[in-house]
Structure formats: structure tokens, C-alpha cells
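@channel sequence for tomorrow's demo:
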Amino acid sequence: TLQTNVTDLQNDVALKAYLDSPIFTGTPLAPTPGGGDNSTKIATTAFVAGSLGGYAQLNATQTFSGGQRGAYSFVADSTNIYLNFNAANNFYVTLGGNRLLDTPIFVSEGQSGVIRVIQDGVGGRTLSFASIWKFPSGTPPVLTTTPGAVDLLVYHVETTGRIAVRF
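C-alpha cells (generated this afternoon):
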């Protein structure tokens, strides 16, 4: 029944942030076999979601009463460092040589975050930047070169071709 489905959804909602308003959309499809396990699964595009008990929505203005945070995503050290902006907002990399922070993939206007750049145990590593990265003076910063030093680059994607950065 609808009430049972809503109750099940509310019980399941504690671990999820729903994406839409509490309106049914779409049409449920016919039941399909569950892949040899004698179960029946219903494929559907219908959702009951939204502000069930005050859960986060992507299409509404909200005030959070607790801290919100994005985890750091590890980036493998290589000659050209590519960030995947679909993977995270915050990144860290330990430089093992002089590197280029290349144009990231999946650049979307409005995204912002932090790139934590760490010197390896040798230090003295430099970081150059692809032309998409824009700095206030027009000149990229010089990293701290002490072994183990950490520098933060705070970025904001202004357009898909321009990322503003503060060191």
C-alpha cells in the first residue's frame, strides 16, 4: 500500500538526502524477475521524496544546524595532475617532483573547494598551472618548499574556462 511504501521510505531516509519534492512523478513499470533468486523487483521512475522529516533537498533553500563538510579526495602524483571535479570538491596531492596542475575534468560553474598541496620528504618541489587557473595578481604562487610543507589553494569555478584561485 502507499502508506507502507511511505513508511518504508521514511525508515530508509535516515541514511539518505532526497533530491526532489514529495510529489509522485513517473510511472511504475511492470514487475521484473529478480535474477534467479525467486524475488520480484519493481523498476520504477516514481519517487516519494523531499522534505520527509526535514531531510536535505537539492532544490530548496536550507539552513543547516550542524557542520557540513566534504572529504578530501586523494590525487595520485604524476607529471600532469588532473583533478576530477565530479569526484569531490576538496583534493590533496603529495608532490614527488616538479608538477603541472592541469585542466581538471568535469568543470562546472559554481563549484568551489580546496586543493591541499604537500611537499614530499625531499621538498623543493614546484607546481605550475594550466591556463584555466587564474590568480589575483595574474602570477601563480610559489609553494613553500620545506620537506613536508602544506599549501592550500582555494578555488572557485567562475566559468568552464576560468577557475579563480587564492593561495
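heads up for whoever presents: Confidence is low (pLDDT under 50) at residues 44-51.
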